[in-house]
Amino acid sequence: MFTKIPPELLNAMFAYVSPPGLASLARVCKSFLQPSRVLLYSNVDLMPVTNQKHVAACIHTLASKRDLAKLVRRFACNSITEAHPASFTSPLSTVSFAIALSNMTDLVSLKVQRFDPSYFLHTTFQLQSLTLLWETVTPEDLQGIFAWLTGQTSLTSLCFPNLTLDERTSDILSGAGNALSEHTSDDPQAPDYVQSLLSFSFVSRLLPRLKRLHGPSSIVAALAPGRPLDSITMHIHSTIYNGLRPSALMSVISQVTNPVSHLAIITTSRNPVDARSLERVLMAAGAELGSSLKVVEVESTLEDEVLFKQIYGVLVRYRALHTLRLWRASGAYLTPPATPCAIPTTPITPTSSTPSTRANTAIPLRTLERALLGQWHRQCSALRSVTFPSGHRWRITDDVGGPIFTFVGFV
Questions:
Q1: Sheet strands (E) in 129-255
Q2: What does the DSSP assignment read for 237-276?
Q3: Backbone angles phi, psi at 302, to 5 degrees
């Protein structure tokens, strides 16, 4: 009976079934088997799986059953040192993981904890998206990943969301440190890793289709020039007092071949960035990219009051800005929503000497945000959507009598 149902119709219906339901449907009949398998294995996400034995069993299945591994289009795995499914005691061999990856010939999206060249030696897939969850990395590790990426010409998204580079590695990438400035590729006195990186011309040939880049500022600066980047998420781990050069950084980023429309600047409590450094970054971004940026996001550890002053001072540089999103970094200062705030009696500027907004008339938080929206819209008339660190999202619409500020809800 089920054999008369077109496969396209089964695919459409099964798309609304949960993974456990798909597993059950796969055992009903042969007609249900292939559509269920395609949906079950097209997106294998092992990140939320806490039972390491289940992770190991899945890897073993993909390594031993090539027909199933070929169905995988998106794969995510947080760890590859799990228990072997046979004994659940011995470590999963790198061979099993490497075979599983090599079997995924149609893989387009990959998210793993770290990159090891031995796992990718025999892979033939052409990725569109790669996310590496490294927290630290050596120059040798970067050389390995960049060397492998030379063959990934279809990649459009590259993310290092957790990566923090040490000073030596940052200097090597930026070319600002002694490691590169004092040596050349044919210098026999140069350290091995410096010789390798100097002789490796990945900068000019790597990732010709890259559209989205997420990582530390030094990696962004190394990969941005000459690529059609549309979205950049950049982690700032240094300050203008210990090496950060905002103008030079944004000047390099502006050398992309496609106008950047989305920029996210992230600072964390782990590597705090002072108010002056963040302000300089925002000013430099506005000066170099302000004519094309439509979405700007800032995740900061600064107090809201300080951040708001900075935003007011730099908005005039962002001529095309449509959406502004402000977030609190983890561990950052938190303004209690229930605490009354005060409306500024004069425009807030980075150099304003007005008294603290908490010292004036106490008013609800939304009223303060509405007043800020009025000031910001006068600085940037293209602004249409704002999300505050409180989680409040506002929409701005133009009207004959002036702009209308509408509270949309919580993010």
A1: 129-132, 157-159, 212-216, 231-235
A2: ---TTTT--HHHHHHHHTT-SS---EEEEE--SSS---HH
A3: -70, 155
Which residues are registered as beta bridge partners of 396?
405
pLDDT tens digits, 254-276: 999 999 999 999 998 888 899 99
Structure tokens at 410: 């919580």
- Under 8 Å between Cβ of 105 and 139: no
Sign of CA dihedral 210, 216, 220, 222: negative
Closest CA relative to residue 42, chosen from 108, 91, 93, 102: 108
Whether the CB-CB separation of 394 and 407 falls below 8 Å is answered with yes
* DSSP assignments along 125-178, one per residue: ---SEEEE--S---HHHHHHHHHHHTT-TT--EEE-TT----HHHHHHHHT-SH
Residues 6 or more apart in contact with residue 186 via CB below 8 angstroms: none
pLDDT digits (tens, 9 = 90+) for 124-181: 999 999 999 999 988 888 888 888 998 999 999 999 999 998 877 777 676 533 333 3
Phi, psi of 143 (to 5 degrees): -60, -40
Longest dimension (CA), the chain: 79
**Beta bridge partners of residue 233, listed in sequence order:** 214, 264
Return the closest-CA partner of residue 80 out of 108, 118, 43.
118
Token reading at 14: 């099964």
Here the tokens at position 284 are 């430099």
Q: Which residue has the higher pLDDT, 78 or 87?
A: 78
Structure token pair of residue 348 = 């807030």
Alpha helices in 255-342 (DSSP H): 275-289, 304-314
* 78 phi and psi angles, rounded to 5 deg: -80, -25
pTM for the whole thing?
0.82
The two three-digit tokens of residue 22, written as one number: 């798909």
Candidates 211, 241, 236, 239; CA nearest to 223 is: 211
Q: Which amino acid is at 65?
A: K
Would you state the structure tokens that stand for residue 353, as one six-digit string? Answer: 């000497």
| Tally of residues, the chain | 411
In angstroms, rounded to a whole number, what is the distance separating the alpha carbons of residues 234 and 388? Answer: 20
Backbone angles phi, psi at 284, to 5 degrees: -65, -40
